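Side project, low priority. Logging it here so it doesn't get lost.
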Amino acid sequence: MDKKIALISTQEGSLSGVTVFMDLLKSELLAHGFQVELLRPIKHSFSSIKNLNSILGYGLLQEKLRTFDLIIGNGMGLIGAVDLPNKIINNIHSTSTGSFKCFQDSANSMSEIESNSLEFVFSSILGSKHIDILSAIEVKKDSFELDKIIAERADALITVSHSTKQEVVDGYGIESKNVSVVPNGIDSHWFEERNFENIIDSYPVNVVFTGRAGNSEMPIFWKGIDRVYRVFENIKNAHTIGIFHLGTASTGDAYSRLFNSIGADTCFNIQNSELPHYLRRGDIYIQTSRYEACSLSLMEAMASGLVPVAFSSGMVDFQIENGVNGYIVQSVEEMQIRISELIENPELRIKMGERAAEKIRTEYSVVKRINGDVSVIR
């Protein structure tokens, strides 16, 4: 095929689910015979100005993008393409309108314990005495109009979950029939067999968090790092491990001090190809995010045989059958109760871990994801 495709990933130096997905998409599209180039914009010097950094960085790709037949990106990543005649596919992993509402609701409903815990984590990691999280959330509004324009300009829209599709329909006024749902998928190296029988003999049980964290208030709030801290602080008879993907390595010392103080081990910026070796040492996985669309971290943990205990968001209700292959919880306290039950019942833990792995291996491979995308591309 002679169709030339540009994939726009996150900025250089940033690691996210979009980064991992675009790498996988590139490999699979090349295998399908397309000409593909993965573009990562260089961070602009105006890095202290909220959102302007991203707008300028992605916008600088415009001249390069003119040489492609098809441009695939995620939301604001397509800002350099909106005025071009090229065909655009907006592969939406999350929306500014949906995340804003979710964050606002979460901030307004925080208990005093949760609010104090968040302040403590902010202070420990960022050195800040007080952060007005509601004001920080307001910055998300800056993206509303841009995201809407990009969604309207796209020739095709693909969302990673049914909830994200509804956010696009409600927030950007796009007709439902014009939005496809193709859930994320993970690479085949996650589907290697695991010897579940050995888990009964492992002590202590390993309770793991893995996911993007950050060195500013919004990623910490978004990913629920304060919830991770509270859960790990209260777990008994188990080993806790935090595997954090940080935007900058310099923040690692602050994370280590915070989590090591409660007996948790920390690892940082593990390469995706190496991550299965870390996760397969785990038994229970916690997802604490306040907003997700279709979490790669959750799927990777489930494919590795860990039992997920997760807050409900995005695809969680589709991927976790509550009480069968994991647990869906509404509070840190409920998460702690479910983890305790799993620690005390190794047979249940193994059975649920096997079911979790089977669910992802059967329904959420990258092959299924790419086939869905390719059908739209063609």
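Brief comment: Residues 45-50 have pLDDT under 50 and may be disordered.
Revisit when time allows.
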